[in-house]
Amino acid sequence: MSAAPAADVAGRIAGTVRADIRELAAYPVAHADGCIKLDAMECPYELPESVRDDIARTVRDTALNRYPAADLSALQAAIKTAFGVPAAADVLFGNGSDELIHIVVQACCAPGDVVMSPWPSFVYFDMAARFDHARFVGVPLTADLTLDLPAMLAAMREHQPKVVFLAVPNNPTGGLWSDEDVAAIVDAAPGLVVLDEAYQPFAEHTWMPRVLDAPNVVVMRTVSKIGLAGLRFGYLAGHPDWIVELNKLRPPYNLDVLTQATLMTVLRHKAVLDEQAARLRADREPLAAALAALPGVRVFPSAGNFVLARFSGKLDGNAVHLALKTRKILIRNFSNAHPLLANCLRISVGAPAENAALLAALQEILSA
Ligand SMILES: *Cc1c(COP(=O)(O)O)cnc(C)c1O
User: Fold this and answer.
1) Which of 36, 48, 110, 218 has the lowest CB atom count within 10 Å?
2) Is 338 helix (H, G, I), strand (E, B) or coil?
3) pLDDT one digit per residue (tens) for the chain, 368 residues
4) How much distance in Å is there from the Cα of 198 to the middle of ligand 1?
5) Which of 222, 225, 308 is the best mutation target for the ligand 1 pocket, counting ligand atoms within 8 Å of the beta carbon and taking the most?
């Protein structure tokens, strides 16, 4: 046997893989070995030794030869208590909220149906919609990167979206849409509104107590931004009847036993997660202020564990991003992502020493 000629493989792919998929690039994940990593809103703090010992013990006693149990009620109860989900709501678990986004789109959208979000926002809303044969409509934010409510209402009237995703606070801009604006969108939406509260612990603001008030709202959360990005766990809370429908799309056994065991253990130490989030909240404003004091830098208000900054001095966003990368500091470049984000870079709030290293590097780069 000899391997098939590359041209034959290419020909078969061209005739088989969807044209829109062939044109896409995979979701960018930077190589980070030896770098200061301020590009992905991870928590910079590792769990304390005592919690890690506790995890090691539970994981050791977890049977790996069996599929995960069908009954998730213990974890559901623990999650509801830990994160303030109303008793009368149910929760659906996903392998990260990325999986939950797919589940929602697949459950609600026939091919060509519209998924909508203010834009720019979380890129995976757009990607998941396309993968699942829906049509994504992004409604531009204002030039100040705030929600354009009249534009949103008009776009919903025109496109009748089956699903509206609202990231509150929004990623990558950091803005927190007002309750009045969110309520107006929920009222006017013909289908489901998913409130993506990935950054809720940093905003200290939530729709969760109201999740059952409207017939068309679910609240989605993740543990990725509060210290557990490596676990891959997200949850979606809503009326039990919504959860019954969405649960039909959940891949069987999507939540592995190690994740379940680890979560049950970590939730007994929830205060540790809360304390880490509080530290990041406290460090956000000093970082934003120091960035805003640099020449030619505009910082947008953020309710997340990150800030978006526009660089319009001698160096443009691409040049600043590259100069930081050369110094092994990773942040996320949105300069070329959308016209509203021209020369914008997104910086996660890191540990104090990381923030200081970033600021020192920027001082040097911008004064060179
Ligand atoms: C990071 C992020 C998520 C990602 O969640 P995972 O649980 O890690 O898949 C979801 N929504 C928004 C807006 C995010 O920024």
Assistant:
1) 110
2) coil
3) 789 999 999 999 999 999 999 998 877 777 888 999 999 999 999 999 999 999 999 999 999 999 999 899 999 999 999 999 999 999 999 999 999 999 999 999 999 999 999 999 999 999 999 999 999 999 999 999 999 999 999 999 999 999 999 999 999 999 999 999 999 999 999 999 999 999 999 998 999 999 999 999 999 999 999 999 999 999 999 999 999 999 999 998 999 999 999 999 999 999 999 999 999 999 999 999 999 999 999 999 999 999 999 999 889 999 999 999 999 999 999 999 999 999 999 999 999 999 999 999 999 999 98
4) 6
5) 222
What gap in Å lies between CA 164 and CA 217, rounded to an integer? 10
> Which atom of ligand 1 sits closest to the CA of residue 172?
15
Compute φ and ψ for 92, nearest 5 degrees.
-115, 135
Kindly give the number of the ligand 1 atom that is closest to the alpha carbon of 100.
9
Task: Identify the residue whose tokens are 């409207």.
Answer: 214
Residues with CB under 6 A from ligand 1: 41, 96-98, 122, 167, 171, 196, 198, 222, 224, 234
Determine contact, residues 71/253, Cβ cutoff 8 Å.
Answer: no
Nearest CA to ligand 1 atom 1: 198
CA-nearest residue for atom 15, ligand 1, is: 171
Q: Assess contact for 331 and 358: CB atoms under 8 A.
A: yes
Numbers of helices and strands, H then E, in the chain: 14, 13
Using CA atoms, how far apart are residues 363 and 359, in angstroms rounded to an integer? 6
- For a mutational test of ligand 1's pocket, the pick from 41, 102, 171, i.e. the residue with the most ligand atoms closer than 8 A to its C-beta, is 171
Q: What is the dihedral angle through the alpha carbons of 299, 300, 305, 306, rounded to the nearest 10 degrees? A: -50
Retrieve residue 336's tokens.
Answer: 């070329």
Atom of ligand 1 nearest to the CA of 223: 7
198 in Cβ contact with 97 (< 8 Å)? yes
